[in-house]
């Protein structure tokens, strides 16, 4: 029997009354594993109202007690780590090791949320003028909304609601309808950690659920991770309705390889960074930029990528799993074909890959192109699949110009043994997250996730100190207490009349 995914509204789990049914399928064979009813307008309103009501009392809870809820929550997440990873693997197709990493990176953000007291400290200046002091407080905003993608169903929700709630807000989460089981388990554990009912609400569905959240008068902030077109829609719609919005969108991440880099290290790092997780991550390395004589390494890179074998989530030898759905597979295959048609050399072709016994799954084998130029679609578009494009340039300056001309600015890396080359690259590159001899430079949660250009729409980024600023507002107080008001007497007593 197919499982029914429930909404969480005001502390109650309900299948909902929506007429629009959405199937949750196993990407390895496209067989249904669950179904959900898309939330109705009434249910969306109820979720927002529950978050608003719970927030009114939660914001008065001592910040130290909010931190203790997060401490209990991170303990529960660690206790259920493998259970969560198994559930995540089964609905996303990720390998077990990859899924464990997804869960763990979310736990790291919850640990940072447990440090919320130090991040919500205001500022004080005594005697800004004679006898006048000024000080500031950091206060919550109200109701926050999170709209999360399919590719990290544990990590990205945990980027959002723990930080927002630790700051004193209520929250409504709209996870991807393609893998909602993991986010629901996260919500269950959050309640077990002692969070008040109604503080975290979860509603399911497609765009018909998103748009009412973007325009709801009681919603104060919107956090989103997903594609460029949807990110632009969410940012524009949300800001048009006077919401504070952070929208993380697409990417085209480059790894620049200098001639003085260690070749074997480059090859080892590039293989996993490009086709790992089936390329379904916004920080994947999808373009390798070979500088000067390193172009001779391309064939060896291709040979190593070709050894990666997709497989089932519980296969310890599998390099990665299937794509999330048939539409994603069709799009990746169409882009691979465009690369061939536009003149790129396909050194490794995973178009025809199937897994015996699971032929109906959304499988694409590892694919490598050489001779790629910026005019080609496989360079211009985010493929979101296990496809690596190799580009050749003569100098580091040409590599920097190439990367800076790209409309995306999520992440990039350079592999070199030259401190001067690394310094020049990190200084001149117009990308928000830079790795030096590290392929995927995702910062730990005490920093913030800082994509640039068309990879991000908004002003304040996810987790770290910027998240606290995003989910709060600053109140500044200027005070004068004239000394003439001091009551004097033998016992320094004050009589109230």
TrEMBL record:
Domain Aldehyde dehydrogenase: 15-477
Gene3D superfamilies: Aldehyde Dehydrogenase, Chain A, domain 1, Aldehyde Dehydrogenase, Chain A, domain 2
Cited InterPro entries: Ald_DH/histidinol_DH (IPR016161), Ald_DH_C (IPR016163), Ald_DH_CS_CYS (IPR016160), Ald_DH_N (IPR016162), Aldehyde_DH_dom (IPR015590), MeMal-semiAld_DH (IPR010061)
TM region(s), chain numbering: none
Keyword list, A-Z: NAD, Oxidoreductase
EC number: 1.2.1.27
NAD keyword on record: yes
Keyword Hydrolase: no
PANTHER family found in the cross-reference section: MALONATE-SEMIALDEHYDE DEHYDROGENASE (PTHR43866), METHYLMALONATE-SEMIALDEHYDE DEHYDROGENASE [ACYLATING], MITOCHONDRIAL (PTHR43866:SF3)
Protein family: Belongs to the aldehyde dehydrogenase family.
Protein name, UniProt field: methylmalonate-semialdehyde dehydrogenase (CoA acylating)
Organism: Ferrimonas pelagia
């Amino acid at each position: 029997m197919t499982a029914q995914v429930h909404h969480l509204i005001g502390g109650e789990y309900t299948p909902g009354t929506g007429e629009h049914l959405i199937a949750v399928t196993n990407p390895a064979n496209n067989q249904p594993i669950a179904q959900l009813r898309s939330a109705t307008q009434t249910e969306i309103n109820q979720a927002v109202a529950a978050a608003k009501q719970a927030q009114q009392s939660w914001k008065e809870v001592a910040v130290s007690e909010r931190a203790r809820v997060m401490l209990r929550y991170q303990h529960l997440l660690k206790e259920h780590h493998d259970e969560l990873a198994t559930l995540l693997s089964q609905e996303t197709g990720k390998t077990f090791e990859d899924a464990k990493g997804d869960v763990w990176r979310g736990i790291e953000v919850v640990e940072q949320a447990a440090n919320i007291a130090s991040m919500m400290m205001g500022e004080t200046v005594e005697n800004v003028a004679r006898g006048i002091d000024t000080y500031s407080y950091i206060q919550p905003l109200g109701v926050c909304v999170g709209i999360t993608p399919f590719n990290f169903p544990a990590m990205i929700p945990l980027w959002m609601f723990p930080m927002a709630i630790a700051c004193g807000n209520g929250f409504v989460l709209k996870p991807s309808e393609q893998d909602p089981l993991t986010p629901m388990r996260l919500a269950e554990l959050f309640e077990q950690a002692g969070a008040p009912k109604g503080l975290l609400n979860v509603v399911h569905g497609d765009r018909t659920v998103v748009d009412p959240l973007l325009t709801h008068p009681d919603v104060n902030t919107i956090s989103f991770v997903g594609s460029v077109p949807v990110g632009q829609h969410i940012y524009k719609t949300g800001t048009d309705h006077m919401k504070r919005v952070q929208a993380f969108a697409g990417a085209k991440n480059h790894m620049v390889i200098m001639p003085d880099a260690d070749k074997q290290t480059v090859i080892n790092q590039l293989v996993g960074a490009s086709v790992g997780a089936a390329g379904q991550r916004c920080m994947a390395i999808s373009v390798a930029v070979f500088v000067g004589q390193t172009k001779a390494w391309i064939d060896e890179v291709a040979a190593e990528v070709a050894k990666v074998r997709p497989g089932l989530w519980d296969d310890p030898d599998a390099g990665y799993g299937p794509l999330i759905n048939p539409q994603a597979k069709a799009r990746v295959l169409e882009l691979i074909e465009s690369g061939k048609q536009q003149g790129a050399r396909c050194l490794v072709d995973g178009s025809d890959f199937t897994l015996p016994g699971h032929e109906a799954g959304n499988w694409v084998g590892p694919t490598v192109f050489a001779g790629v130029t910026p005019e080609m679609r496989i360079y211009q578009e985010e493929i979101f699949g296990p496809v690596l494009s190799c580009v050749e340039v003569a100098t580091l300056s040409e590599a920097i110009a190439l990367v800076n001309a790209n409309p995306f600015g999520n992440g990039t890396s350079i592999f070199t043994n030259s401190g001067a080359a690394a310094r020049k690259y990190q200084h001149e590159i117009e990308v928000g997250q830079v790795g030096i001899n590290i392929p995927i430079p995702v910062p730990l949660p005490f920093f913030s996730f800082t994509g640039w250009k068309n990879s991000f729409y908004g002003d304040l980024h996810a987790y770290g100190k910027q998240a606290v600023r995003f989910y709060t507002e600053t109140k500044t107080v200027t005070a004068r207490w004239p000394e003439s008001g001091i009551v004097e007497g033998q016992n320094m007593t004050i009589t109230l009349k």
